[in-house]
Specification:
By secondary structure, the chain is an alpha/beta fold. The protein contains eleven helices and 15 strands. It is globular.
């Protein structure tokens, strides 16, 4: 049976590629909603005027949701539309209430990360969702990135020995390339800027790869001139097993594309990789450079694996993004999904501690 999808949050720059993914997975978007506004599907056009962000790569958006019922109220959509999953790309301050409505109606959820402004917004819903068997999942795509899957497996196998430190960097295009009038760049709506929007991917990914949660953080921010959220930040952190880490993120680049790096340094091995490129950067492969001090590597202690990513189904990031959604829709009925509501809350707890640290200038423990 084809899953029936209700889509909430049409005025969002991830909408177009998500519509395309739904079409590629043979999902039926039967209802759409922009809260507070009744949209005209016939005039729904691609967001090609946002060259800084993700577009449809020439697809006709209106065709992808042809015949869907339009709602202005997400509660009505969830209650009336007879859907299996609600797919949300909406403002952080309103998403938790929509998620709770879905849980109350037994409707599963896939939502743009981080599913709220703070952990306190989402925590009251966790036990209810888990008790009722309703799957709520954030879009933390790196959990299906092939390089990250490789590194996670190596860490679990003890390849690195004790991991001393990890360093991450994800910088994106400057705010001048972006539609800063959008609500994702508003403090009251979103809580933060670079760390709250592009940061969650790596703040989730690094402890997931290590299989070791972040327990305390120290963060510094600098404000943006154009908007009232931060332009960038540097985060120090420590994990439960004592790994020390840093993460550097911001709207810094003077052109489109991404500046990324992950380094893992252990007693027995080290790894360095950009994690991913995108189709804009025209890189043929994504390298994973490994150095190991172990008997079976003595003949060639330095090795590089070249990952040849594909971009046919999700050009702006890589096709592993579609793999993430495919895994969600294959497993949401049983809860066997790449990331859960518990993972989303843990991510928000780390972000909470980071923003508190930015205000106090001190190390802050991550709440449990």
């Amino acid at each position: 049976m084809t899953e029936r999808i209700g889509y909430v949050g049409v005025d969002h720059h991830h909408r177009d590629p998500y519509f395309a993914i739904a079409s590629g997975l043979d999902l039926d978007i039967t209802a759409v909603c922009e809260p507070g506004r009744e949209i005209d599907l016939a005039n729904l056009a691609a967001m090609d005027e946002r060259p800084d962000e993700i577009t449809t790569e020439g697809q006709e958006v209106a065709d992808l949701v042809e015949g869907a019922t339009v709602y202005a109220d997400p509660e009505r959509l969830i209650a009336e539309a007879d859907i299996d999953v609600v797919w949300i790309t909406y403002r952080n301050d309103r998403v938790p209430s929509i998620v709770e409505i879905a849980v109350d109606h037994g409707v599963h959820v896939i939502s743009e990360k981080p599913i709220g402004r703070t952990a306190a917004d989402l925590e009251p819903i966790v036990s209810k969702a888990n008790e009722r068997g309703v799957t709520v999942s954030p879009t933390t795509f790196y959990r299906r990135n092939p390089v990250m899957l490789d590194l996670r497996e190596r860490i679990r196998d003890g390849f690195f020995g004790d991991v001393w430190t990890v360093e991450g960097r994800f910088n994106a295009s400057q705010l001048s390339y972006r539609n800063t009038d959008h609500y994702i760049y508003d403090r009251e709506t979103s809580r933060g800027g670079a760390l709250q929007w592009i940061g969650p991917h790596w703040v989730d990914m690094m402890p997931w790869v290590l299989d070791d949660p972040i327990t305390r953080v120290n963060a510094r921010f600098h404000d943006a001139a154009e908007v009232d959220v931060e332009a960038g930040s540097v985060l120090q952190f420590e994990t439960r097993r004592g790994t020390l880490g840093t993460y550097h993120t911001g709207y810094y680049l003077s052109d489109r594309g991404k500046d990324t790096h992950l380094g893992i340094y252990g007693t027995d091995a080290q790894a360095r990789t950009p994690v991913h490129h995108d189709s804009l950067q025209h890189e043929p492969t994504v390298p994973l450079e490994l150095t190991a001090e172990r008997p079976d590597w003595s003949g060639a202690p330095k090795r590089t694996i070249e990952y040849e990513f594909t971009y046919d189904r999700f050009p702006a990031w890589g096709d592993y993004v579609q793999d993430y959604f495919e895994a969600f829709f294959e497993g949401y009925e049983t809860g066997d999904v790449p990331a859960t509501i518990d993972d989303a809350v843990q991510l928000l707890r780390v972000l909470d501690a980071a923003y508190e640290s930015g205000e106090t200038g001190e190390w802050v423990s991550v709440s449990k």
